[in-house]
Structures are given as structure tokens and as C-alpha cells.
Amino acid sequence: MAGELILIVEDNEKNLKLVRDLLQFRGYRTLEAATAGEGLRLAVEHRPDLILMDIQLPDLDGGAALGRLRADPGTAGICVVALTAQAMGGDRERLLGAGFDGYLTKPISIREFPDQVRHFCERARPGG
Ligand SMILES: [Mg+2]
To answer: In this structure, what CATH number is given to the domain that contains residue 42?
Structure first.
């Protein structure tokens, strides 16, 4: 089941590299963006199977970026998972309410992260 294309939108270089390395080790293909604008551009161009979206980004908030993805018929159906350090009470509900398909908190669990991603990819598959 490996080989899905995953877009990582994350402005922290260390986090970005960690996520990329974990995903590539599991056989996923990755695209990387450090800003929401670049992430949106890559999403439109490559139509990834899954997007991991940081919330605090230098240009647009991850929630606003999600809104733009959902507004574009070409990217509206992509599974988008929030990847955020925000772990305050109610954040999970707020992000899922905003339309994210899932929610992962940072720091990510190196042991659990690949399986969490696989779970989201399987859910995202049409009919699966
Ligand atoms: Mg950030």
C-alpha cells in the first residue's frame, strides 16, 4: 500500500525533515512546503493523496489554507490532517469542526506516526 503521495506543509525545518524521513522510510512519496502558499500551489499541481498541514505558518493560518483547498474543486476532496502543537482543550473539536479530516499533535510520536498516517490514507481512499 506504500507509494501514496503526501504533502507536508510545515515551516519548522526540523519537524519537516523528521516527518519526511519517517514517511519516506515507510515508502511514501513526499512533497514539502514551508509556507501555506507553496503548499497550496503543490496541492493544485500534484493532487496528493494526503496533506499534513501545520496550523501556525508564516503566511496563512493552516485553517485558512484548508478553506482554500476546500473551495477549489480540484483539491476539495483531498484528505487534510492538521499537524499542530496546539493541544489546548477544545482544539481538536475546533480543528475537526473547521473541516480537517484528522488531527495529530506535535511533537509527533516516532513510533506511532507512520501507522497514524497509514490510517488516514486508508480512510481517504475512495470506498475504503
Ligand atoms: Mg509552524
So the answer is: 3.40.50.2300
Q: Each residue of 13-46: pLDDT tens digit?
A: 999 999 999 999 999 999 999 999 999 999 999 9
Q: Give the total number of structural domains in the chain.
A: 1
> Ligand 1 centroid to 11 CA: how many Å?
5
Looking only at the bridges linking them, the beta strands covering 79-84 and 50-54 are parallel
Task: Pick the closest to residue 47 from 71, 31, 60 (CA basis).
Answer: 31
Closest CA to 82 of 58, 56, 60: 56
User: Which residues constitute the domain of residue 79?
Assistant: 5-124
* Cα(40) to centroid(ligand 1), Å: 16
For the entire predicted model, the pTM comes to: 0.92
